C-alpha cells in the first residue's frame, strides 16, 4: 500500500492499564511471550491489525481483551512514541492508550497480568517506562480538574470513598469542603435512589454512581482542587 | 521490517501551524502537489522517512522546512489520527503536531502557505478539519493556564501586547489585574534591560522577552486565568 520508496514502519499500540489497589496506583504488566524481550514484564501491546481494526483505538480494545481478558470503559489516547531505536525490530510507531478500571475488574485478569506500583516499577523493555511515567503524570494532572478518578472507583460508592480515591491518585490529602464543591461543580454523580451504605460506625451514607453521560467521557472544571 | 503477515500501515505526520494575524487565530495551509486530493488546500504533511528521521518529531520539523520553509521553536505532539478510511491510499497513522509562530515568521513562507482563519476553514481533505479543530481546542484550553500564547508574540513585546495575544487566542477579554498576576506566577518573562516602547500616546512601556527556559517548553499554573 505504501510506495516502494517508503520503508515500512512498525505500527503498534501499547496500553497503560491503571488501577488502585490498597490506595496505591498500580499498572498492569504482562509477561511477553515472544522476542524481543521474551519473558520480560511489559505493557500489554501488539501490532495494529490493518485487516481487522477500524482504528488504533480498536487495536487497543482488542489488545486489552487478548492480553488481559477485559474491557475498559475508559480508554483514552495518551501519546505516540516513535523512532528508529525504541524497538530493536526497526523504526516504530507506538500509539499509547491509557485505561482506568476499578481493581475488582482486574480480578477477571487474575493470572494474566501483574499489578505493580507505578512508583516501584521494575526495569521495562522498549520505552515502556517513559510511557508509564507519561500516563501517571497525565492522570495525576487531569485528576486535579476532572472526573477522571471515578473510573478507578467501583460503583456504587460513598463520597468519602471517592475522596479517598482522589487522594490516592493525587498523593496528597484533599480538603473535604472543596472536594464536595468540586463534585457538585463537575455534576458527574447521581445518587442511587434508596441506597445507603450501612454497618459502619458512622451514620448511613448515600451511595452514588457516575451519570451515564460521564461514563465514557470526562467532566472538566476550569479550576483545580 | 514487519513480518509478512502484518500488512503495511501508511505512517505520516501532519502539522497544524498556527499564528495570529490581525488578532485572528489562523492556520497555515499548503496546496497539495500530488494525489490524493491534488491541488486541494491541506495541512502540511508527509510520510515518515524511516531512513532519515530519528523520530516523528524530526519528520514534522522536516515537513515544516520543506513545505513552509521555516522552523518553529514550539512544536508539540497533538494527537494521532488513525484508521482504515481516513486516507484513500489505505490504513493510515498520522501523528499530528501543533506549531505556533509569530506572524512575522510566516513572512518567510510567503507564497508557500495560505493563512486561513480557524473559524472559517474551507473544506479540507482527509480528516484535516478534525485535526485543526483538535489543535485549536488544545491551544485555547492550554492558554488558560500556561505560557503557550507567548509563542505567537514577536519579541520583544509589552505586557499590553501580550495581553492582547491572550485575548485573541481565548476569544474573550482578560482582566488586566489577574493577567499581570498570572504572568508573574508563570515567571516566563524577563525585561529587556534598557528597552522601552516609545512613540505612543502613553508613557513608555517596558519591553519583555521569554526567558530561555520557556522558549521550547511551557510554564504551567495550577489555576486558569
UniProtKB/TrEMBL annotation, chains A, B:
GO terms for molecular function: hydrolase activity. SUPFAM superfamilies: Nudix, Winged helix' DNA-binding domain. Pfam families: WHD_NrtR. Gene3D superfamilies: Nucleoside Triphosphate Pyrophosphohydrolase (3.90.79.10), Winged helix-like DNA-binding domain superfamily/Winged helix DNA-binding domain (1.10.10.10). It comes from Acidovorax kalamii. PANTHER family: ADP-RIBOSE PYROPHOSPHATASE (PTHR43736), SLR1690 PROTEIN (PTHR43736:SF4). This is NUDIX hydrolase. Keywords: Hydrolase. Transmembrane segments: none annotated. It comes from the Bacteria. Residues 150-209 form the NrtR DNA-binding winged helix domain.
